Amino acid sequence: DTSCGGAACTGVICNNPEIVTVGEDGRINLFRADQKDAVRTIDNADSSTLHAVTFLRTTEILTVNSIGQLKIWDLRQQRNEPSQVFSLTGDRVPLHCVDRHPNQQHVVATGGQDGMLSVWDIRQGTMPVSLLNAHEAEMWEVHFHPSNPDHLFTCSEDGSLWHWDTSTDVAEKPSFLHQGGRSTTYFSHSAINQSVVSAWLSNDPTKDRMEITNLIPNQTLSVNSLDILGPCLVYGTDAEAIYVNRHLFA
C-alpha cells in the first residue's frame, strides 16, 4: 500500500500458504495466499532496514538487518519482539542475505556488505561460528543446495558467483581438475568445538576443507540474485539477463 508513503520491500519468502515480507521501514508483514490483507504486521520490528527474511521453521522466521544483526521471530508469540538476537562483532556490517540449512535448521548462513560469508549455530552463542573471506564487494544472495546442502552458492556485486563445496570427498579430488587461478581456492576454516555432523560446523581437520569455484570467472557485472531449481542454478545479473547453469555437479 503506497498510499501512506510506503517503504521499499527488500525481501519476501513463501511457505505455502504463508508469505512474509520485510522492508526498509523495519516492518514485518505476514500474509496468507488466500487473503488479500495482512494477517499480521509488526510495525517497528527493527529500527534499521531489514534486508532479507527466510523461514526457520513453520512458525519462526529469520531476518537480517543493516547493522549486522540476525534475529529469530516466533510468529506464535503476540509480542512484537524477536525471540533471539545474534550479532556480528566489531563493525556493524550490514547483512544482505540469509539462508538456513535444509536438514539442520540450527545452521544458518548470511552474507553482507563486506562480502564475507558468516555461518551461525543458532543453538548456542550470539556470534557466528565461522567468518569466511569471500567476495570483494557486497554479497547479494546465499543459498544452500536444497537436496545436497554440502554445497552452497553465493553471488556478489563484484560479478562473481561462488560454489562452496564441503562434501567429504573434496580432499581426495585431484587438484589438477580444479585449475583456474583465483577462481578456485582451498583453505581451512576454524570452528568452535562442535558435536555436530554438519560439515559447515565440523572441527575435524581431515574434513575441515572447502573448495570454492567461481562459476562465471569472466563476469564483471553484478550478479544480483540466484536460486536452485532441481539440477539447475538460475541467476540474474546487471546484464539484464537471466542465466541457467544446467550442469552444477558435472
TrEMBL record:
One of its GO terms (cellular component) is nuclear pore outer ring. The keyword Nucleus applies. Gene3D superfamilies: YVTN repeat-like/Quinoprotein amine dehydrogenase. SMART domains: WD40. It is found in: Nucleus. The keyword Nucleus applies. WD repeats lie at residues 88-130, 132-168. SUPFAM superfamilies: WD40 repeat-like (SSF50978). Keywords: Nucleus, Repeat, WD repeat. InterPro entries: WD40/YVTN_repeat-like_dom_sf, WD40_repeat_CS, WD40_repeat_dom_sf, WD40_rpt. This is Nucleoporin 43. The lineage of its organism: Eukaryota, Metazoa, Chordata, Craniata, Vertebrata.
